[in-house]
Amino acid sequence: MPKLVDHEERRAHIIDALLRSAASGGLHSVTMRSVAVEAGVSVRLVQYYFDTKEQLLLAAMTRLTARMGERVQRRVRASGATDPRGIIEAVLLEAVPTDEESRAFHLIHTEYAVLSVTDPALGGPQFLAAPNEMEAFLAAQLTAAQQAGTAAPQLDPHQEAVVLLAVSAGLGLSVLLGQRTAEAATTVLRYHLGRLFPGQESIRSIT
Question: Do residues 173 and 106 touch, judged by C-beta distance below 8 A?
Answer without folding.
Answer: yes
